[in-house]
Design brief:
The chain is an all-alpha fold. 75% of the residues lie in helices and 0% in strands. It has 14 helices and no strands. Helix 5 crosses helix 7, helix 8 (127-166) runs antiparallel to helix 9 and helix 9 packs antiparallel against helix 10. The N and C termini lie far apart (120 Å). 17% of the residues are buried.
Length: 471
Amino acid sequence: MSESAEVDQAILDKTKKELGAVIRSPKLSDRLLKKPPFRFLHDIVTGCIKATGFASKLYSDEEMDSAKVTEKEAKVFFLQKIISSVNYTLKLSPPLAAKPIKIVSGLEPAHTNDFLQKLATATKVPIEKSDKAIQKVLARMADKAEQALKQERKASQQNEQQATSSEPAPAEPAAADEKKAATQQPPSQQPPADDKPSDAEAKKAEAEAALKRADAEAKAEAEKKAEEEKQAAAAEKVTPTPIERREEKSKAKEKKEVAAAPTPVGVMVEGGKKEGGDKGTLDTDSESDHEPSAEGPFPGLPDADATADGDGGKLAQMVAAKKADEEAKQKLAKESADKEEEESGGIRLQTQRHRQGKDREVFSTEVQKLKESLQTLVKITNPLGKTFDYVQEDIDSMTKEKQMWQRSVQDVKVQAMEAEHSTEEALQPLYGKLQDLEDSISDQLNKIHNTRANILKNDANIETLLRMVVS
């Protein structure tokens, strides 16, 4: 049957008829039976236990209190116990199709109604036989819980070994804590294994998935720490000072000027040689053959030292003089620029550098304070966020309890009216008899009065006759 299919009305009527003969509370309405909530099922099971004594040793006092059975695993475990008890008590083959996980999720209501009908039948079995079945159920579930715990320990050990071989040290404490918590948990609180092998495999898969999630969280934490260290190292890099930036700009500008300047043709010197070219040819080499840093601002021209001692021509002497003038002008311009920079910007640049270092320290301090504040906020709000998960469930429980009391009040009112009506109907014949008696009494009084009147009249007649005789 499909999980979302509607339940046939005949099934609901059969459930109400069979369960209604066993318990009186809670009220078995069609709305609740079409999609039974866990609180409703819990009340039915505890009501059957209290009314008939069936499965009285199956649950602890805490499990009998619905307010303490709030976790999903606890709800599944509660239903698994009673379903297995019904199967063993009635010796059903095949067993009930109802699955605890489906029931808690509100699915397969037809199977749930079938389970409730079989529960009503199981309550009619003698207590001696049902107690033996309950003992078998408890022993079987204890064995399955122990087997599941062993499998979970084995899987956790394998995952821990894999994590230690592939991950750094921070991943180890999380796996160790999870393993410790799993070993310390009593078998009675372990999630139940279903009667079929598929559910046992699902439980094993869930345990492995939990360990994988723990490993993934440890990896994510390690990656996050590495990323934070990289960001901190990048933030510690010192930015270039204004002086360094200015020097870099000036060097780039000089390189651009040198690259944009035209390449001069080689100059003829004595002996038929051209400086910077081959013998008997013009200098047509590219700019890369003349380094401006080594030959000055006029590459390709003869050096002044080379032509001063010789008897070169007039053109060579003019070139040497021009070169000397250019070098002197560049030297003066550089000295004036350095002097200007020292007088106007030295102190200010030093102050800016000091201020930048101070701002960096303040920024690091503020970031650290912000991190601490965020961690404190998360620690404070984390428990509050967890409690919010239970608020809706508590509201639903209180709403259902309110509705239950309202229905109880309405039922009591109806019962009182019916009792009053039945009393009135029972008193009606008595009222008729009373009226008849009153009428007969009235008739007898009238007869008495009439007889008395006749007697008095007869007495008067007798007295008159006696007087007549005497006279």
